[in-house]
Amino acid sequence: MNVETFEEKYKYELPTVYKEFISKHNGLSLDNGCEFYALEELDDVNKELQVNIYQPDTVAIGNDGGDLVFLMKQEKETKKVYLVDAGDYDLESPYQIIPDFMKWIEDGCNIDECECESEVDFGDLYLLQMPKEGVKGLVTIKRAFNIEMSTGELLQKSKNLPTKLLSNITWSKANIIAEKIGMVGIFEVRES
């Protein structure tokens, strides 16, 4: 399948620089762990990562082999690549912004560890108040945040607020999930 057919079939508008890249390298893995998805897997990967839900105007083009996903805006002229946490697609606070995709590719896709435009801060998620829905709300929270404790244990913890629910989450991700389940303002992310 060529790029134009792909865009038409799956309703993407891929950046011109990325289309040039994918025409030459249909999928690429580098020694530093960076991987760029092949055209055939692009739509499936984006659906699996739920990019179409959390950042529908972007497309995930690859990853660093770890926790970072490479996103580009679905705009013809863009050259920027946003390196974002796999659990937090917030373009306002990316791990790093690459201003020129092709130059970055030519330079070996180096990812700065300290010269980032902004760092993603991880912390512990705390429940500050009981949800209005009571136990039903706790079950919703448990599912939405993938909390690995029994509902009974969660109910017990909720009697002594604030209580820690889980570790290693970004504020942006917590906020997105809280908005999605309609429970904004009852959580807090604190430094670990």
In short:
The protein has 192 residues and is an alpha+beta fold. It folds into two domains: 3-106, SMI1/KNR4-like, CATH 3.40.1580.10; 122-191, Ribosomal Protein L30, Chain: A, CATH 3.30.1390. It has eight helices and nine strands.
Task: Write the topology of this structure.
Elements: H1 3-10, H2 16-24, E1 28-29, E2 35-36, H3 39-48, H4 51-54, E3 58-63, E4 68-73, E5 81-85, E6 96-98, H5 101-106, E7 122-127, H6 135-144, H7 151-157, E8 163-170, H8 171-180, E9 187-191
Mean pLDDT: 89
Low-confidence stretches: 114-119
By DSSP (H or I, 4+ residues per run), the number of helices equals 8
Question: For this structure, what is the CATH class of the largest domain?
Answer: Alpha Beta
First-to-last CA distance: 47 Å
- Largest sheet: number of strands, sense, barrel closure: 6 strands, antiparallel
Beta-strand share of residues = 15-25%
By CATH, the topology of the largest domain is SMI1/KNR4-like
Global structural class: alpha+beta
SSE order in H/E notation? Answer: HHEEHHEEEEHEHHEHE
**Overall structural domain count:** 2
Lateral strand order in the biggest sheet: 1-2-3-4-5-6
What is the molecular shape? elongated
Query: Based on the structure given, which CATH architecture of the largest domain is correct?
Result: 3-Layer(aba) Sandwich
Report the CATH superfamily of the largest domain: SMI1/KNR4-like
Oligomer: single chain
